[in-house]
Amino acid sequence: MSKGKDAPSRARRLVRANDILFATIRPTLQRIAIVPDHLDQQVCSTGYFVLRPLAELNHRFLFYWLFTPAFMDEMESLQKGASYPAVNDSDVREQFISFPPLVEQQRIVGILDEAFDGIATAKANAEKNLQNARALFESHLQSVFTRRGDGWIDQPLDAIAVIVNGFAFKSGDFSQNGAAKCVKITNVGIREFVCDSDGKLPAHFMREYSGFALRSGSIVMALTRTIIAGGLKVAVVPEEFDGALLNQRVAAILPRENLVSPSFLFTYLCSQNVVDYVKDRVNTLMQPNLSIVDLRAMPTPFPAMHEQRQIADRIALLRDETQRLESLYQRKLTALDELKKSLLHQAFSGAL
């Protein structure tokens, strides 16, 4: 790799404007940056390899080259370490870069700069639209429970639902050869069920622990790490987990259907009201654990049954539309990322 004899390594030292910083720890995260003018002569911390191209290599040409799949694939193959995979300085030094005359480099950089500016704008718009779609859904969901009409009443959750605490199965009970599925905290995502399974229980457990068997459509909530960065961990058990046994630190919430509809109750459990209730009762600075006592005592508002069904149907339609828009914007973001890769491939294979 062309750097010049005075090119700095990742040791602590001053960097210059237009130096390129390349993170050697987890390099595939593409933590690569050009030092701006206002940080000229600042100290660079350890963990970064500093690239300072010779005069015949345009610094932005090198910057773009570092993002190419070929270079990133090579860095991935050279990573060492499980917790913090990293590449050595020598791994970076030994890479070869082919480059055309400076005038051609500048032409390619000009094309990439313009194209990537356009892609960045398009991505920002898609991400904003994605956030707006989610915000609209959340706003409508919250309004249901803040603008109640006449006839709503409040009851503790355990007055309108049967709440079952999971059984403390032993880790040694699980195996890849087991027959009985089990719902663990890892299966409870944010408003969605995660169907991954890292082991099953013996077949005879289905009979011995039948009191902990779940039916599809049951609502489950994680009691450990109840709230994570993305929201509250509550989900509905799908068909493929019908009959699965409930593990410890997961609660099953089974509505008394003469009082509250399952779809309405799940809608409420997805609301900010519940998030706020849980936050007030867990230590978010440590591992947030919700007690089964607090879950059972949670105030739960609900109207007459016909209004519950109307609300649940309306929210379901809005959720479907929001998910359709999210899928559309995510596809756009993926397509833009693929376009960047394609442009980089063309630029460094002589096709641009």
Provide structural commentary.
This protein is 40% helix and 14% strand. The chain has 352 residues and is an alpha+beta fold. The strands form six sheets. It has a four-stranded antiparallel β-sheet with strand order 7-14-9-12. A three-stranded antiparallel β-sheet has the order 3-2-5, covered by helices on one side. Strands 1-4 form a two-stranded antiparallel sheet. Helix 4 (102-146) runs antiparallel to helix 10. Residues 2-11 have low confidence and may be disordered.
- The number of domains is 3
The succession of helices and strands, N to C, reads EEEEEHHHHEHEEHEEEEEEHHHEH
> What's the CATH architecture name of the largest domain?
Alpha-Beta Complex
Identify the strand order in the major beta sheet: 7-14-9-12
Individual helix count: 10
Which superfamily, in CATH terms, is the homologous superfamily of the largest domain? DNA methylase specificity domains
| Bulk shape | elongated
List the helices and strands and how they pair.
Layout: E1 13-15, E2 20-23, E3 32-34, E4 42-44, E5 48-51, H1 59-65, H2 69-78, H3 89-93, H4 102-146, E6 153-156, H5 157-160, E7 161-165, E8 182-183, H6 205-208, E9 219-222, E10 227-228, E11 231-232, E12 234-236, E13 245-246, E14 250-255, H7 262-269, H8 272-279, H9 292-297, E15 299-302, H10 305-347
Parallel strand pairs: 8-13
Antiparallel strand pairs: 1-4, 2-3, 2-5, 6-15, 7-14, 9-12, 9-14, 10-11
